[in-house]
Each structure stands twice: as structure tokens, then as C-alpha cells.
Design a protein that fits this description.
Helix content is 51%, strand content 8%. A five-stranded parallel sheet has the order 2-1-3-4-5, sandwiched between helices. Helix 8 links the parallel strand 4 and strand 5.
Length: 311
Amino acid sequence: MTSTSNPRDLRTELESLTTEAFRPELAGIDQLPTPEIARLMNAEDATVAAAVAQRLPEISAAIDAVAERMEKGGRLIYMGAGTAGRLGVLDASECPPTFNTDPSEVVGLIAGGPDALVTSIEGAEDSRELAEADLDALTLTPDDTVVGISASGRTPYAIAAVAHARRLGALTIGLSCNAHSALAAAAEHGIEVVVGPELLTGSTRLKAGTAQKLVLNMLSTITMIRLGKTYGNLMVDVRASNDKLRARSRRIVALATGADDAEIERALSATDGEVKNAILVILAGVDGPTAARLLEESGGRLRAALTAAAD
């Protein structure tokens, strides 16, 4: 049901959270010169990577579990409210152009729907029913992964999403920025990146938001590496949907093969602009259809396809 917490109880709960703590030493920040405020903020941000580093074992275990399920056709689904939800939608929306994934493979859901990306939707983050309905609309399977994102670790929408997904047999991950959070406890994989109190009290779009972005970067990027979406550190599954990406595609083929411009153009023409296929055409000396077949038989993994072509 929708949360109806007593305002006084909620205030007490928030006051107990590290992300909401007040820092009296910063009470006069509004009286400082701009360069000093910028220095303080930059120093705060510099601590975030170290906080993420402390959670690398949990992050790595979650990534391996996600990759195992996506290998079987599962989806990666991010769910959150406010800043956390926007960060999930952002990460999901970057996967199709970067890794040539179908938009249905990595999904970002924000409490209140698309309108909540640009405006506050009153009460949406408190609705457990909304989280369950959003997931039910996706017809969840045991191969799917649901990542609940919440700086506080107490957002009802995120907790309900993870709890509902777990009941349905999906893999669940809870990403928060407070220790001993309800969100992490509800998930199979809890990731708690404790970044401490914010420069502005309770403004968790700052260090907490940065920490969440770093972890989401890892979840999607390393999962895609595990799925063979890269060749070394090259984005060989990039979707060339504009002039910049078409230029990047040619550069990637050049870096992977050392071929000259004319050979690269011939290979891309023979493979309908598919970077991975073009690299295989050049390095294995095969034609476009053969490259496509080898990649299909190798599960889209370029290294495996190159080995198969050499056999």
C-alpha cells in the first residue's frame, strides 16, 4: 500500500540517515567566496570514488549475476524515484547507441513515469502499488534483473520494486548510500556506497548521485564487456546513428585492424556498417555474410568468431 508515515516519524527517520546529516562546520558556506565554495565541493566529490572502491566485491558479484541472466535473454531493469530514477533512465538510454542493445534489454523506470524526468510527481516515490504495477507491465521473468536505486535506501517505490521482483524470482540488486538500508536488505545483492553527509544538507543529487552514477556505469558497462559487446576496450557494437558515431565507427575499425581508409570503407560497405562484422572481414579475410554467420555462431563475441575463422 502507499506509504502514510507520520510526519514526525519520517523526520526522525531522515535524521538518522547519514545522507541527511547536518554539518555545522559548513553553516557559513553561503558567506564564502565562490572559489572557496568550489574548492570545498570539489574536495567532497573527490571522496566518492574511494567510497565506491570499498564496495567493489559486492558490485562485481552483482555484475556477474546480471551477465549470467542477460546471456539467457534476461533484461536489466533500473527503478528509482527522483534523482535516483533519472540516473537509472540515463544509464539505460545510453546502452542502445553504445552497445547496440535493443531498448527493451536495459530499461529505466522512474516513479511517476516519463513526466517525472523533468518535474516532481507528487507522492510517486511513496507508492508501493505503482512500483508493482510498473513491473507487472513488463511481465518479469526469472532471467531478468531489477535494480532498486535510492540514496536513502528507504524509498518505498524502490523497496517495493525489489521485493516484488524477488517474489517473482528475478535477480534483485539494491543500490543505496546508507549502511543497513531497507533497500539493500530487501535485495539479493545489496550495494551500500556510504559517501557521508552532503555539502548541502540532504541534497543527495550531489555525492550520493555521483556514487550511484559510478556504480550504474559499472553495472551496465562491465556486463556488456562480459557479454562480448566490446573488443578489448573498443566499442565494437556501437550503433552509427549520426555523423559523429559514423566517424567513431571508422576509427574503431582502424584501431582494431590497422587497415587503411579504403579497406575500412569496403569492409563497412560489405557489412551494412556493422563495426564488429567489418573488423572480422578485415582480420579474418572473409566476406560479409560469412562474418555475420561466424558472429552469430559465436554469440556475437568477436574474439570467438576470429578463433572460429582461423580453425
